[in-house]
Amino acid sequence: MEPKKNPKADLTRNSGLYFVIGLALVMLLTWRALEWKKYDKGDNYDISLNVEDQLDEEVPMTEQIKTPPPPPPPAAPEVIEVVEDEEEVEETVIESTETSQEEEVAEVEDIQVEEEPEDIDVPFAVIEDVPIFPGCENAKDKRACFNEMMQKHIRKNFRYPEIAQEMGVQGRVSVMFTIQKDGSIGNIRMRGPDKNLEAEAKRIIEKLPKMTPGKQRGRAVRVPFSIPITFKLQ
Fold first, then answer.
1. What is the CATH classification number for the domain harbouring 166?
2. DSSP bridge partners of 177
3. pLDDT digit string (tens) for 90-106?
4. CB 186 within 8 A of CB 177
5. Is residue 171 part of a domain?
6. Domain coverage including residue 196
């Protein structure tokens, strides 16, 4: 017995394509339905502002104020009187600064100009008359005697600070001071590795005796002097 169905008539052959087309149509209709908008055709709306007019009072008209004309200028006097100046003015007499022949003129040689002494510092190495340390008055070389007496003074008054000894501090302290015009010691400055050593060096210099001041051209001047003091642990 032969089958009645045509073998070429396969209904499921294009079912996938039909499903996709149908799905696309359904999605298109759904999107259009969601985007559908409806507008009123009537134009019956009022575009004017709903503002009540509350200005019921009448505003009076401003009146024009007329300014009065300026007063007329004063009339000029018919007769001009001339008043004479009766006050007398004293004249200032300017005296001449030129000298007459009768006055005596001082000559330039007779005028003496006093020179004011200048406070200058003359270094110890170049001063004419060095300061005299007590005990060097009769020495032939007062400069060498001064240096020798300075070393004796330092050795005599030298004292190593205990704090520096405990800390093991040693070194050289450069001391600078000035022998004033009256022979006193001033302007002491120190530079060293430790403050305790600097304080000891200052104490030694402050114990220096008063000296005979140094002189330059026969006039007392200030003399700066510097000397190193060495602190060395045994």
1. 3.30.1150.10
2. 225
3. 666 666 666 655 666 55
4. yes
5. yes
6. 142-231
Residue 148 is assigned to a structural domain of this protein: yes
Report the amino acid identity of residue 145: C
Give 30: exposed, middle or buried? Use CB within 10 Å, 0-12, 13-18, 19+. Answer: exposed
Whole-Å CA distances, 128 to 72, 144, 191, 195, 225: 98, 14, 28, 36, 15
Q: Which residue positions in the chain have pLDDT lower than 50?
A: 45-51, 53, 55, 59, 62
Tokens of 80: 């001009």
Q: What is the pTM of this model?
A: 0.49
Give per-residue pLDDT as tens, 9-45.
666 667 788 888 988 998 999 988 888 776 666 555 4
